[in-house]
Design brief:
277 residues; 3 strands; globular; 7% strand; 39% helix; mainly alpha; single chain; three-stranded antiparallel β-sheet
Length: 277
């Protein structure tokens, strides 16, 4: 199972669930696949909630609590509140889907249990915006994932892969954060490379940058693990990543005058961290 193992109690058994081993990580190579052409001109970051996350946005996010399992030759993303299949995904996205749903599960836990009440305002606002952005990305890619699942050969979804590039390198998705990261890493194209390549993208690097609880593989990306000491570690990792806009865990990151878009990313300029000198 990609998400919460407890859902097996309310869902039909899946004969293909015998394998916790990742299909992506266990493959030494894979064949290139076609990318969904209709999203080729879709602007990266255009789904980010620049005006902040509204109460309605948060309610919409909390309406779904997603896990995933394997059904035959593809994956299914299921809402455990209704046992409804809400999306499908091709198997070459096995690891990425599990990581995507782990991140969503973290945001769901922080929002649903009111854990953000203990965060500073600007951290809580940033987490809410990133949660709403993830939700928008999910709804944008759902039909495209279905198309990719049932194509011959199975296809790929460019926007989903771009989102996971940002998860790998930056850990958050404010366009201003991406701009600053790219400024400080001019020799690395944030969206270049094949996100399915184990050689190009070693997620152990993410564990080192952001914490193994935030990355999730240690817990097999099971959202039931989000309690006790694990939840405490996730909260600590989250506060490190979102603590201040200019306190990002990349120690060499600096701010250049004219780079910032924080007033677009923190809800109309409210609770914006001070700019570093």
């Amino acid at each position: 199972m990609w998400g919460d193992p407890s859902s097996s109690a309310s869902l039909p058994p899946r004969s293909a669930m015998a394998g916790e081993q990742s299909l992506v990580e266990s493959s030494s190579h894979w064949a290139p696949l076609e990318v969904d052409a209709d999203e080729s001109d879709f602007a990266i970051g255009s789904l980010f909630p620049f005006r902040g996350a509204s109460t309605l946005d948060i309610q919409s996010f909390l309406q779904l609590n997603l896990v995933a399992t394997i059904s035959g030759d593809h994956g299914e993303i299921i809402d455990i509140m209704t046992s409804t299949v809400v999306a499908t995904a091709p198997m070459h996205y096995w690891d990425l889907i599990r990581r995507f749903l782990w991140r969503r599960g973290i945001y769901h836990k922080l929002l649903n249990d009111n854990i953000l009440d203990s965060f500073s305002d600007h951290v809580a606002n940033s987490v809410r915006c990133n949660a709403v952005h993830l939700n928008s990305v999910f709804h944008w890619i759902r039909q495209r994932l279905a198309t990719a699942t049932y194509s011959t050969p199975p296809g790929r979804v460019k926007y989903f892969e771009a989102y996971m590039h940002e998860e790998f390198y930056v850990g958050r998705h404010e366009p201003s954060a991406l701009i600053i990261w790219q400024k400080k890493n001019p020799t690395t194209d944030l969206w270049a490379g094949d996100i399915l390549s184990k050689e190009q993208f070693d997620w152990r690097d993410v564990q080192e940058r952001f914490g193994d609880a935030w990355e999730g593989k240690r817990f097999r990306w099971h959202i039931l693990a989000l309690n006790g000491d694990t939840l405490k570690s996730v909260v600590e990792d989250c506060q490190t990543i979102f603590d201040t806009f200019y306190g990002h865990p990349y120690t060499t990151m600096a701010v250049f005058s004219g780079d910032s878009e924080e007033s677009r990313c923190y809800g109309g300029g409210k609770n914006i961290p001070n700019q570093a000198p």
